[in-house]
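Running low. Any example?
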Amino acid sequence: MPRRSFSEEFKRDAVAMYENDPDVSMNQVSKDLGINRATLRYWIDQFGTGKKTTPVAAEKPDVDPTVEKEIRRLRKENARLREERDILRKAAKYFAEGDKLVIRFRFVDDHRTEYSVKRMCAVLKIHRSSYYAWRSRRDRRDHKALSDALLGVRITEVFRRENGCYGAKRITAELNDDRGSTPLNHKRVARIMKDLGLYGYTRRRRVKTTVRAKGRHVFTDLVRHRFYADRLNKLYVGDITYLPIADGSNMYLATVLDCCSRRLVGFAIADHMKTSLVIEALNNACATRRSLAGSVFHSDHGSVYTSDEFKKTCRDLGVTQSMGSVGTSADNAFAESFNSTLKREVLQDRKTFANQLECRRQVFRWCARYNTSRRHSWCGYQTPNTFEEKQMYRVA
């Protein structure tokens, strides 16, 4: 994969994403952005405020042997208590549907390679002989009922972690990534989700943002609803969507998406809808790919895309423009779908963002995670980045 380059604005947004959320670690932010941890550390040194600076550890004083022996004993005791605490924490997830004896047995059975059976039975207050007897005589029906209950806990955990945005197929893909578990069928996951009352968020928002400029040259539709490509860096689609703010103003997001991998290769956020916004998004895409020469960029008939400045940028980058029909959202369906998904998953039941800063941070984070963490049905429920890596491996 070619080396990626980032604008200063992207770097500052990445630093702000880390410093302004006390619940995220540097490793998590690096993973979400798809960058190396050392790279993020370097950006923090450049642009950070020092809000999360790690204090320097104090020099260890001399300790006499008696005290050291006591410390070792206490550490051993603490390790035992921590293990018991961890067992209880993990067991609590199993007790979501009630504290039944069979659920305790199942927890011990599921974690017997991680903790000793003796320790778990002592913590959960069950007899080892009872556990082994249960294990030897459990029947298929009880196992199925218990398995569904435990799977429901895992499904709920993924569903909540993704803010209620994942449906049965994406949750199935997430759970099947756990190599230690039995492969799941999405129909079973859907059935359990229905029993638990869990439904992926489906509300859609339709907003018209295309402003056509009369008298300007319109390019031929080279796509004709075929939003796919047999290789990377061949066909892109782009659009602008508005992001409503509580004070009545708007922010705007311009995007460039690869039709082969569904990856968001370039985007730009601003408080205006000028041509410079879409040019910035296209230039960011070029920085990601290193070159866009020979590719096709498909858009609607918006004045920013028919402007002389944007046409010149496309020529300079070796990009051929393509445009769909006027007033037909299906002619740019991929980009429209992306915009709809973004608003649906970020805003959910809210109508607006609280302010422009919150809007920028939330949208920036979602766009970053879209490539690195969010599973896409087109990619076989892999992330776009993972899909691209496999594509390049097959080509190589």
The radius of gyration is 26 Å. Residues 204-208 have pLDDT under 50 and may be disordered. Residues 66-137 form one domain.
